[in-house]
Amino acid sequence: MSAAQQRMFIGGDWVAAQSGETYDVVNPATGEVIGKVPKAGREDASRAVDAAREAFDRGPWPRMTPADRAKIIWKIADLVELEVDRLAMMETINQGKTIKMARDNDFPTGIDNIRFFAGASRNLEGKAASEYTGLGTTIFRREPVGVVCCITPWNYPWLMAVWKAVPALAAGNAVVIKPASVTPLTTLEFAKLMEKAGVPKGAVSVVTGPGATVGEALVTHPGVDVVGLTGDTATGSRIMELASRTVKRLQLELGGKAPFIVLEDADIEAASEGAVVGGFVNGGQDCTAATRIYVQGSIYGAFVKRFTEKVSKIRIGDPTRRDIDMGPLVSEAQRKKVEEMVGIGKNEGAKLIMGGKRPALGGPLSRGFFYEPTVFADVKQDMRICQQEIFGPVICVSQISTFEEGIEKANDVVYGLAASVWTRDVGKAMRAGAQLRFGDVWVNDHLPLASEMPHGGFKQSGHGKDMSAYTFDDYTQVKFVYVDTTDAVRKPWYYTVYGD
What we know:
The chain has 500 residues and is α/β, with parallel strands linked by helices. It has helices spanning 42-58, 66-82, 84-95, 99-120, 157-170, 185-197, 211-220, 233-243, 268-280, 297-311, 332-348, 384-387, 403-411, 426-435, 472-475; strands at 4-5, 8-10, 13-15, 22-26, 33-38, 136-144, 147-151, 174-178, 204-206, 226-230, 249-253, 258-262, 290-296, 351-354, 374-377, 394-400, 418-422, 440-443, 462-463, 476-484. A seven-stranded mixed β-sheet has the order 14-15-16-13-12-17-18, with helices on both faces.
């Protein structure tokens, strides 16, 4: 990929920022500039919202039949499928994830999500009309909310644009997407394909630029009705504060610190395999990553030994190669954050048993933002590395005595997004599913998601759902329409207001 000049998509036009400013997009595996995109400002954000408002209030999109909208949404999936190899490589080069993950996981999953939302939008749930008062018929309507601002993260740039924007569009809303500053490229390509599929002018815009300027301008704009964010908890808190000024609806998928409970009857081979996959997915830059491993004492030593043996076999390198398991972190800033947290773990007294540093200087990985897979053992519950999200390839392993202690410690964080338990005991598996305060709970696996499965958190991991038909609850609103059927001038209850 060459360092091409990109434009952003506002109101059906491909435009530069009004200021004329741009910023560089970098390949995290090499540090090289691979593109330049508009550095939008508040005026650009306002223009995008105004275009979306016009498209929703007077345009054809929300007035189409669900079937006609679904045809266009389905066509988006078809167009992505035709371009999947090119788009997956672009995602890898821009974000740093491995090509096998981008090509064989993110894009097939997202394509299926698009088709699911196209179909599910034609069958939104609602009560049947009925004569609830005995005097008239009440009709329930589920309608699009209006203009939806979608703020997407840098760890899954294209897939999160699908999760946020596509159900909002399918329900009849107009959307403005603000991709993460460091990973905008596949979202801009996605806008080209949505335009080609026939999404009307103004119904989709993509605005690139810094979150502190563009994101806040979008969130505070009175023309925006809903803000959907995937990001860290601190960003979610800030958006809640800003959105409160105009009482906006929010759909927030925020940080996580997923527990991975291994009970003494678990299959150690399967659990250790699952821990490597669950912990180091996307270089640990995943809010559902299994970053806290709790192992029952009788198998603690055996598990740690097998787990670290497998971690040592993770292949780090050029993420465009299919024989590589882990690429770089997304940016130098993110690598420094991970290094800081590893230093804190050492100072707290956690036992560093592998990793904890950058690859050797002068080697083939020295130009990129690489960091070795890192494992701490004997981690105490109150340590910061156990309580705070690190968002990198750093795993904490702790020992527990009982099932009950595992559940208690798993729940003892501010987050509540994802968790897993490994056991052959059906009763304990069922109790864990009920007692773990997390939106996603897996038994004897970690990470699987499908379009039909609602993904979202408890506590400070946010609220609302991505994927599944439940996500339409965030992008639609319900009203009732009451029609009197008596033709009476005076209804029986009128006397409670005036007269006899």
